[in-house]
Amino acid sequence: MSGTPTTVSPSGTKTALVPRITTSAITINNLGTVRKLNSVIFPVKYSDSFYKSIVQPEVEDYCRLIYFNDIPVGTTCSRIEKGSKEGESKLYMMTMGVLAPYRNFSIGTAALDEIILAASTPPPTIDAKHPRITHIYLHVQTSNTDARRFYEKCGFKVVSEVQEYYKRLEPRNAWLLEKEIAPPPPPDQP
Amino acid sequence: MSKVVGLPGVPKNRILASKEAALFRTVLQLYETRQWKRGLKTADQILKKNPDHGETLSMRGLILTNLNRKEEGQECVKKGVRMDLTSHICWHVFGLVHKADRNYEEALKCYTQALKFEKDNLNILRDAAHLQMQLRHFDQLVETRQILLKNRVNVRQSWAAMAIAYHLNGQLESATKVLELYERTVKDIPPYDPEHSEFLLYHIAILEEMGSHSEALNLLDVSAKSRSITDRSMISIFRARLLHKLERSEEAREVWVSLIEANTECYDHYKGYLSTQSLDLDSQDSETRKLSMVTLRRFAEQYPKAVAPRRILLELSAGDEFKEIVEHYLLHGITRGIPSLFADIKDLYVSPEKREVIQDIVEGIRTKLEKGGTSSEPPTTYIWTMYFLVQHYSSMPSTIPHALSLVDEAIAHTPTLPELYVAKARALKRTGDPLGASATMGAAWRLDLQDRFLNTKYAKYLLRAGFIEEGNKTLGLFTKKGASSPGADLEDMQSFFYMLEEGDAQNRAGRLNLALKRYHTAFKTFDDVEDDQYDFHSYAVRKYTFRTYLQFIKVEDRLRSHPAYAHAALAASKIYIRLFDSPKLASPTAGLTDAQKKAAKKAKKAELKQQEDAKKASQPAATDDSEVAAIKDDDPEGLKLLAAPDPLDRAAKLLSPLQQLRPELLDTWLVSYDVAIRRKRYLQALKALNHAKSIDKNGAEVHSRVIELKTKGTLPPSSNPASQLIPADQSLEAFNSAFLQRHSTSAPHIVAAARGMVYIRGADGPRADVEDLVFQLTREEVEADVPTSLQALSFLRDTLRSSRVEEFRVACDARFPLATVFKDEKSSPRFMHPECSILFNPVRTATSQRSWRCDVDTFIATGVEEFPCILY
């Protein structure tokens, strides 16, 4: 930790340390940390198949452990779904959460920005095998207005309210939020 | 050895016909190129015609030893020497065989013989010099080096080797003369030639050692100016030191300042600077300390990022001044999230006053953070504060429960910081709960399977808790995949940690054979390190690293002062003592329950199978001419070690390096005493005890042994210095009870007095009041800890064969509620940690053929949620 960067203001006096927010891929080796975080953050217990799916290489950019000053404090997991057309796909965010004491430090925003950026970077050639992500969507429980505001701030829009989405949680309804990813600009003409 | 020519005057039986002579040259060539099998065939061809040709016989034997047919080879070599007593080849070969056998004395004798018949053979001379170095025969070394130098004047290395020989033999004057002579003869050396630079630095170092400081400084300045020395920082360090020794303090100080500027974290530079003000950091004198602090404060201000001056100031300062410095130091460490902060400053805890100041400051930080709510400090500052406090409270037995409640709070706040679990595991270990400790360490381990530190820690805690197999499997996640077992790889890697921890674990489990085996692997490793230095006698001179080489020689001389040697030697000696006291332990299954025996049998079967598999796998590769099958361990289970007929002699042999190199260690003398008294060497025993007493005057361990010696030993009355141990006018009983009165609230001393009573009354004396005495440990006002209570428990059980063992166990259990070592295995539900039960479910280990890798996956899968070990 000795390499902690300090910010030195132009006058040369030391200011408070800027917290570092970083992410890393979820792997079989740090799955224990992911499990620990999920068990603390979410009221739902996730299945083994969930954990198997999030270590797959194709979702590496979308399933991340989030670190705050080098301590893992949050996770986010997504899966890639088929789009409406060939060469298109949708990203469904399954989970996104940060430990309670670490909220309000823009950790979630930073992580979400990273995912949006990854989703907006299209594969070099778009075809059936390498589809482009057109939308990111997710569900938010209707009681969780904080979360709704958070996603709306990041450019998501409520598309609909899904009835009876949650089987074992109250309230059972969920908002469906979606963000459109702009298509890549056409290649420059030489 | 490459030239064998029929010289005039050679004995007839050495001369071969030209065809055979050619074949013999081939043999030599084949040997040099390590084509041993072909070499053997060729030698046999010669011997068909000349069965008594000594040199061929010798070469044949040498080749055989390299093919792992050692005994046959040695026989053949000996026969060769007998056939041709005046052949330098025969003697040289004989020497080589001895050397390969690590028999350096004998090897050197053979070389000396060989040199009688071939005075100027450079190969033999060089080998002889290395042997003389290995054996530290410096006077002989000087002679050999003189001959070598005469023969190879034009080689740089001969000069250096000569100087080193003189240097080691204490002839510093001659050493410098050699170097001067050399420096005068060499010409046209390009600037910054690294090899020449080392020569000069070595020369300067010798001059400094001789006390010729001005000459040394002169040579340094001249060489530095002529761009002959490459190592710039070395120039400065030598310069500063020499100027100081020449009492040119002002100049010395300037050089030290430039060194500090270049590296603000080197303690030696600060020490050097202070020495120019005649200040010594280790001095306890308050005036000296004050002056040192003034200087260091100036440096601290000048280099705001330097840690070293601040850390030294913490050592020197006291009172308010300390408070001010340490507050800044702690705040800096905590806000930066430096995990090692506590480890860094815990040295200061020798002063209870400083300990308290630190506690107040960090508690203050915590209160501020808790009150502040969402202040500007990130939550990581809070968690590092908590982490520090947990370690702080864990360092004192009385505050460990507080540490445990704090750590649970911290884990609830941030459950993903492995350090917290590690700290918790350590606290649990200290309360005497190895099971809970290992389970908690497992929780840390599971957070990051890629972390080798956590993996090793977890394995260690498993071993400590008695889960030997599981510990080994855990270690196996990071060892070489092709190794026959994780342990085998770790032993190859000379991991003392593994040898000692596994040895201790086997020792605790009562498998003395395996414990001895592991300790002996450690001894063998020390032998290997000692042998390995042989190669450096030539290498270091060839690479011009003279100063480092001489340091290295000093390290090798004190090799067995290493803590790992002390640990292994003491533990193994204690086992040998146990074996002597109860020889029935020497049967390997003694002391094991039926279930353990069964498990052992199974393990053996599995191992055999594994060995066979390994054999099958390695077979096809063994066809190469140079390939030689590895030497098999003829005692993999340590059973031969266990059955040794002379356990005490072996122990004495292990202890003697410690008496030389670690005389400050109390255990060295206690165990030496234990061995000596059993060997009926009463004077040795007395000597050991006197040493022990000088280290720990009122020691409990010393006391019981004094009484034992008095009751058992029959010392010659004239030379009876035992009277120093016990006042002459005092009876043993009075001596014992006086001791007890002096230390009536200290558990170890009470146990010692109880032991003393047993010695005084003999094996069949009354026991009731001895038992009562041990039960004193259960009283509130007696300061008892877990280890001493465990010792008392085994004293009741094994020595007294008391009927009140169970009663004592229950009392200890009540006194140490957090400890599991006093639990009754059958009745206590708490003993079965949930984590342990999934980890070590006997049903699974018995039926499952699944690999460990698979088990690891199951942990991750069934994992943390269902079995939150942190909540038990």
UniProtKB/TrEMBL annotation, chain A:
Main location: cytoplasm
Catalytic activity: N-terminal L-methionyl-L-alanyl-[protein] + acetyl-CoA = N-terminal N(alpha)-acetyl-L-methionyl-L-alanyl-[protein] + CoA + H(+); N-terminal L-methionyl-L-phenylalanyl-[protein] + acetyl-CoA = N-terminal N(alpha)-acetyl-L-methionyl-L-phenylalanyl-[protein] + CoA + H(+); N-terminal L-methionyl-L-valyl-[protein] + acetyl-CoA = N-terminal N(alpha)-acetyl-L-methionyl-L-valyl-[protein] + CoA + H(+); N-terminal L-methionyl-L-lysyl-[protein] + acetyl-CoA = N-terminal N(alpha)-acetyl-L-methionyl-L-lysyl-[protein] + CoA + H(+)
InterPro entries (UniProt xref): Acyl_CoA_acyltransferase (IPR016181), GNAT_dom (IPR000182), N-term/lysine_N-AcTrnsfr (IPR051556)
EC number(s) reported in the record: 2.3.1.258
Keywords: Acyltransferase, Cytoplasm, Transferase
A GO biological process held by the record: mitotic sister chromatid cohesion
Entries under Gene3D superfamilies matching the protein: 3.40.630.30
Ribonucleoprotein recorded as keyword: no
GO molecular function terms attached to this record: protein N-terminal-methionine acetyltransferase activity
Record keyword Acyltransferase present: yes
Transmembrane segments: none
Protein's cellular compartments: Cytoplasm
Organism domain of life: Eukaryota
Domain N-acetyltransferase span(s) in chain numbering: 21-182
Entry's Gene Ontology cellular component terms: NatA complex
Protein name per UniProt: N-terminal methionine N(alpha)-acetyltransferase NatE
From TrEMBL, chain B:
Stretches for region Disordered: 603-630
A Pfam match: NatA_aux_su
Coiled-coil ranges from the UniProt annotation: none
Biased segments, Basic and acidic residues type: 605-616
UniProt keyword S-adenosyl-L-methionine, yes or no: no
Lineage: Eukaryota, Fungi, Dikarya, Basidiomycota, Agaricomycotina
InterPro entries found in the cross-reference section: NatA_aux_su, TPR-like_helical_dom_sf, TPR_rpt
Protein name: Uncharacterized protein
Keywords, sorted A to Z: Repeat, TPR repeat
Domain of life: Eukaryota
Keyword Signal carried by entry: no
One GO CC annotation: NatA complex
Residue ranges of TPR repeats: 88-121
PROSITE patterns, sorted: TPR (PS50005)
